[in-house]
């Protein structure tokens, strides 16, 4: 039996790997509507020189454009890292139906806040392929630290 | 003597009025660097069909592009309405130097949270031309309600 959440998270992981290849913090996100991927994005804050260019933000913009709707209540977002507060609030404005994430982010993630900032109807599912998602980030930061030590 | 904050807030108000003319929730924002306006934006969530297209978000993207930097620590953002959580967190990622806002937003604004989500070094100044900023919003929602009652 195929685990749908894992299957889609693997697609988000592919996006995170593209970010990694571009030397960006490896986070990827996809949005699914009626079993179809309608948006794929990866973190591009360095390349676009824009702190708002998180994977989730770009995926929301792309999915809304695809559906020609400001609301994503019939959609699921898969992201390799727990959404930060900016992305969590953007997801709330979109009234997204479900958010599935991989690795946790206790410092910058939505769970850092006491209040739930997502829409009250949004379903949250966490820890899907958390090791794969987290390892990619650890590997990235390990490389960065090594480079820093060399210089 | 010219009140600099009021002078710049008037520019943000002009942006909010452009949003009003486009039938968007009237919120405007500008970003100032070395006494020069480097970004102007107004809410475009309906026109762009994008819940992330708040005035502040667009202003951050434009200012970072102008400065070719992901950080706005030498900049001040003027916005007619207290930033929402999404915009507040985006401002935090940008490490913006100062945030000046007009009307308060107790339901959706950053002050709704117990924790300060802005960068710890960011200076906050509020209630600048708050009546002008707030009246524009009240007028907009009054019109909307009247239209709803008619239909």
Radius of gyration of chain A: 15 Å
Assembly form of the protein: homodimer
Question: How far apart are the termini of chain A?
Answer: 49 Å
- Biggest sheet of chain A: strands, sense, closure? 5 strands, mixed
Query: Element order, helices and strands of chain A?
Result: HEEHEHEEH
Which residues of chain A sit in consecutive blocks of at least 5 with pLDDT less than 50? none
Estimated share of beta-strand residues of chain A: 15-25%
Percent helix of chain A: 40-55%
Mean pLDDT of chain A, to the nearest integer, reads 96
Q: Which strand order does the major sheet of chain A show?
A: 2-1-3-4-5
- Chain pair sharing the greatest interface: A-B, 29 and 29 residues
Query: What spatial form of chain A do the alpha-carbon principal axes imply?
Result: globular
Structure, described:
- Two copies of one chain form a homodimer.
- With 151 residues, chain A is an alpha/beta fold.
- Helix content of chain A is 40%, strand content 19%.
- In chain A, helix 1 runs parallel beside helix 4.
- The longest helix of chain A has 21 residues, at 130-150.
- Chain A starts with a helix and ends with a helix.
- The model of chain A has no long low-confidence stretch (mean pLDDT 96).
- Chain A binds chain B through residues 45-46, 49-52, 57, 60-61, 64-65, 68-71, 84-86, 88-90, 92-94, 112-115, 117, and chain B through 45-46, 49-52, 57, 60-61, 64-65, 68-71, 84-86, 88-90, 92-94, 112-115, 117.
């Amino acid at each position: 039996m195929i685990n749908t959440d894992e299957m889609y998270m693997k697609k988000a992981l592919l996006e995170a790997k593209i970010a990694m290849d571009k030397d960006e913090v490896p986070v990827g996100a996809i949005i699914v509507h009626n079993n179809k991927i309608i948006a794929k994005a990866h973190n591009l804050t360095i390349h676009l020189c824009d702190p708002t260019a998180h994977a989730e933000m770009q995926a929301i913009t792309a999915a809304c454009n695809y559906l020609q709707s400001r609301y994503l209540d019939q959609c699921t977002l898969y992201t390799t890292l727990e959404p930060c507060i900016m992305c969590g609030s953007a997801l709330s404005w979109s009234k997204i139906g479900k958010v599935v994430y991989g690795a946790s982010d206790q410092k910058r993630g939505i769970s850092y806040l006491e209040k739930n900032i997502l829409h009250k109807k949004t379903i949250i599912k966490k820890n899907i392929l958390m090791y794969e998602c987290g390892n990619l980030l650890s590997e990235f930061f390990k490389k960065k630290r090594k480079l820093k030590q060399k210089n």
